[in-house]
Amino acid sequence: WAHLTQVQAENVVEMIHTLFVVNAGGDIVFEKHYRAPIPRSVLDAFFEARTKAGDPEEVPSCIPSSRHYLINIFRDKLFFIAVVQSEVPPLFVIGVLHRIVDTFADYFGQCTEKKLQQETVIVYQVLEELLDNGFPLTTELNLLKEMVRPPTWMEVLDTISGSKRVKETLPTGQLSNMQWRRQGVKYANNEIFIDVIEHLNAIIDRNGTTIAAEIEGKIMVKCRLSGTPDLLLTFVNPRILDDVSFHPCVRLQKWSAENVLSFIPPDGIFELCSYLVGAQHQLALPVYVKPTITFSETAGNRLDIEVGPKQTMGKPLEDLTVVIPMPKCVNSVSVSPSAGTWTFDQISKTLRWELKKAPLDRPVTLRGSISIAAGESIPDAPPTVSVVFRIPHFATSGLKVNRLDLLSEKYKPFKGVKYSTIAGKFQVRA
User: Fold this and answer.
1) DSSP 338-379
2) Is the pLDDT of residue 368 over 50?
3) Which tens digit of pLDDT belongs to each residue from 22-36?
4) Closest Cα partner for 130 from 62, 220, 34?
5) Helix (H, G, I), strand (E, B) or coil at 119
6) Which H or E element spans position 391?
7) Which of 41, 40, 13 is closest to 29 using CA atoms?
8) What DSSP line would sit under 11-49, residue for residue?
9) Host H or E run for residue 141
């Protein structure tokens, strides 16, 4: 982030002028002006685009108005809208907005409307330190937490005693060449945990052929190591990692020359890197879905869905959810699942089938009939099926950590590695 900010700032005259947070109903939760206040009427272009989109996920990320650009993201049922007055790199602003949301989620446990309203004072204090005149300033969580303390039960005592939440002195990391790590870190038990998390996006046609598939992965680290640990992380198959984005602590020259990650980590939880595995790797999907949805005046309206694990190395599918948005002409659905529970929302016409854990030795099925409202015509095409699942202890890309070495300290820390695959946008055409 420090490198990105420096490079982008060289060519950017202005950055974020005002930040608005708007809920899904269109109410403004709060606003933060980094320069001269801008009237709320600037959001008229956003509300118009929101109405046209219907689905919040479909709102354009960059909306031009007469004198401003409205760059926004939608997370946790909230719109975070940055108002800029001149042309800036949109992806850079989107990255800043995501960092703001991640920071609030780390501070409060979750970034919801209720939490932001409960912790309004801390929200504004964090935004003051996070951005300076609209430009990213202190984006490292360790530094922010030293400058603005997260809310705890101790804040009640601080309120009574009149103690200030914002420190009057700079954090120790702010004055060193490793801004991400504070000095004098000590732990009785030294430990470090690595989580390899992969989100699988895929589009599959009705014949089971994969039309598109990609993996958005990230390596999360929970570090509780004393002193200034110098770590070396190696992989069995590092060439799997494409389009990699690193934390500033990673030494890029070491990765370019030897495909190993050499770094001095921040203290606490942080994202070491993110990566993208594209279609050039010929991904083998770990789950198969066979949906058959037919609408016929003569043969009847039938639904038959089969889901099962495939090439998961013996790991089960957990938190499996199949979502089918039915056409508006559908009146009711009568189905029977081999496992799990199902619901049908009469308002949204959405069929949901959920089960906690799918068996490994056999597929699970959902079969039944669909009733069309009287006087309605048969739909021209069946709906698209969306599937959500989680596979613990399994990485779809095949990425595997070889070893993690501590080079600069004499103690021997406890080390652990965990893998997981989570369905992103996983859609199957029936």
Assistant:
1) SSSEEEEETTTTEEEEEEEE--SSS-EEEEEEEEEPTTPPPP
2) yes
3) 998 899 999 999 988
4) 34
5) coil
6) strand 384-392
7) 40
8) T-S----EEEEEETTS-EEEEEESSS---GGGGHHHHHH
9) helix 141-147
Cβ–Cβ < 8 Å for 19, 116: no
Q: E strand or H helix at 52, and its extent?
A: helix 44-53
pLDDT for residue 3 is more than 60: no
CA distance 74 to 357: 30
pLDDT digits (tens, 9 = 90+) for 243-275: 899 999 999 999 999 999 999 999 888 999 999
pLDDT in tens, 161-176: 555 555 555 555 454 5
Alpha carbon distance 402, 400 (integer Å)? 6
Token readout for 214 is 């990609």
Q: What is the pLDDT of residues 379-426, one digit of tens each?
A: 888 899 999 999 999 999 999 999 999 998 999 999 999 999 999 999
Q: What are phi and psi of 10, to 5 degrees?
A: -65, -30
DSSP 8-state class, residue 104: H
CB contact set of 81 (below 8 Å; sequence gap of 6+): 19, 20, 21, 22, 43, 46, 70, 71, 72
β-strand partners of 323: 352, 386
**92 SS3 class:** helix
CA 329, distance to chain mean position in Å, is 35
pLDDT above 90 coverage of the chain, percent? 60
DSSP code for 166: B
pLDDT at 75 over 80: yes
Contact assessment for residue 32 and residue 41, using Cβ atoms and an 8 Å cutoff? no
| Sole residue written with tokens 């120790």 | 172
pLDDT given for residue 306 in this prediction? 93
The helix/strand/coil state of 108 is: helix
Closest CA to 287 of 170, 387, 169: 387
Q: State the Cα–Cα distance between residues 200 and 202, nearest whole angstrom.
A: 7
Structure token digits, residue 36:
């001269």
